[in-house]
Amino acid sequence: MKEFNIIERFFTGQSQPRHDVIVGVGDDCAITTVPANQALATTTDTLVSGVHFLADTAPSDIAHKAMAVNLSDLAAVGAIPAWISLALSLEDTDEDWLDEFSDTIARLCEYYSVNLIGGDTTRGPLSITITAQGFVPPGSIATRSGAQPGDLLYVTGSLGDAGAGLDILLNKLDITALTDISSEEQTAISQYLVERHHRPTPRVLSGTSLRRIISSCIDLSDGLRGDIQHIMRASSCGAIINVDALPISSQLSAAVSVEQAISYALSAGDDYELCFTLPQDNTTEFELAMHASNVSYTCIGQMTGGDQLELRLHDKPYQPTNLLTAAFEHQFGADPAHTS
Ligand code: ADP
Ligand code: MG
């Protein structure tokens, strides 16, 4: 199958066209319009086989992750997604693979009301690059640089699940060794953790509903302990994290010790939860926004006037043991160049 036929069959006319797309897939450029009074947010992330996902990962999982990591970046600045472009490098033309991959891309585009507006298709080692674009009012952009000493530090969802899921896939974590739970429970826990690794949920609605209230935001791709330092540096602040407050799912709690759960939550990557700072004056407004949401939010600490990150357990300094790599290097071979 030629490039043209692949594009025509798998990546054309996938979704309900948006009114702001004047020219979509099929011409030399995509042409779109940005609403008045909105700024355009643009982000790109590449997933390379064997580096960002295991080579035997299902095509629907790869598609899901490629979408999610990009939409998560839009969420982190408070942008509402509008369009994606897809640059695909394929080893061969496996129609079943392309069917499953493109179906998942189309389904997620539909779900988020996003249009696939263009891309590129080449032959080479399997890699997927998505560029995602969205809108954010210029006065409400959630950058990394607005945190102030005293602001409360929050995260969405639960942390560490994806790291444990990856360790299950790599046979470093054996859920079947848990003797105090049934094999059905073992299977359910294992499936949950692996799913959190393959299919992170981009916190798009959290990003847009919080952007006016919060002072800074980042999405957690490399692990809380490393990623919080981006906010600290950009905002010239220190931070305290109360490790006893870290949101740990019941599944992760059941799978590993408390120490290991803290270690996953601090240092494993790929959670794609939002980490943000909240000025204390905005607490009431924040609680209203929280009630309107299905996502859980947890206060895990506070920004300080220094430049250090302090970890505390029950108000005493906490020295993490059994830590994974310092800031999670995307695992299958270190990938220091990856930022998102
Ligand atoms: P050109 O040679 O002008 O760059 P291409 O032959 O690469 O054009 O692509 C033809 C059209 O198909 C363009 O509109 C491009 O944006 C789109 N396209 C190519 N690959 C993909 C893809 N994987 N997903 C969506 N659109 C794609
Ligand atoms: Mg091209």
Beta-strand percent range = 15-25%
Class per helix and strand makeup: alpha+beta
State the shape.
globular
CATH-scheme architecture of the largest domain: Alpha-Beta Complex
CATH homologous superfamily descriptor of the largest domain: PurM-like C-terminal domain
Classify the fold: give the CATH topology of the largest domain: Phosphoribosyl-aminoimidazole Synthetase, Chain A, domain 2
The amount of helix comes to: 25-40%
The helix tally amounts to 10
Tally the structural domains. Answer: 2
- Kindly provide the name of the CATH class of the largest domain: Alpha Beta
The helix/strand order is: HEEEHEHEEEHHHEHEHHEHEEE
C-alpha end-to-end distance: 33 Å
- Give the cofactors and ligands: adenosine-5'-diphosphate, magnesium ion
Largest sheet: 7 strands, mixed
Q: How big is the Rg?
A: 20 Å
Strand order of the largest sheet: 8-10-7-11-9-12-13
Mean pLDDT: 93
Q: What is the β-strand count?
A: 13
Note poorly predicted spans.
Answer: 325-331, 333-340
Outline the structure in words.
- The structure is a single chain.
- The protein is of the alpha+beta class.
- The chain folds into two domains: 3-140, PurM-like, N-terminal domain (60s Ribosomal Protein L30, Chain: A, 2-Layer Sandwich), CATH 3.30.1330.10; 152-326, Phosphoribosyl-aminoimidazole Synthetase, Chain A, domain 2.
- Helix content is 33%, strand content 23%.
- It is built from ten helices and 13 strands.
- The chain has helices at 3-10, 59-77, 95-111, 161-169, 183-198, 204-210, 224-235, 250-255, 258-267, 283-291; strands at 21-23, 31-32, 39-48, 80-90, 115-123, 127-136, 152-156, 216-219, 238-242, 274-278, 297-304, 309-313, 316-317.
- Strands 8-10-7-11-9-12-13 form a seven-stranded mixed sheet, sandwiched between helices. Strands 3-6-4-5 form a four-stranded mixed sheet.
- Helix 2 packs parallel to helix 3, helix 2 (59-77) packs parallel to helix 6 (204-210) and helix 4 packs across helix 5 (183-198).
- The protein is globular, with a radius of gyration of 20 Å.
- It starts with a helix and ends in a 23-residue tail after the last strand.
- Mean pLDDT is 93; it is low at 325-331 and 333-340.
- It binds adenosine-5'-diphosphate and magnesium ion.
- Adenosine-5'-diphosphate binds at residues 3, 7, 11, 25-28, 86, 88, 116, 118-121.
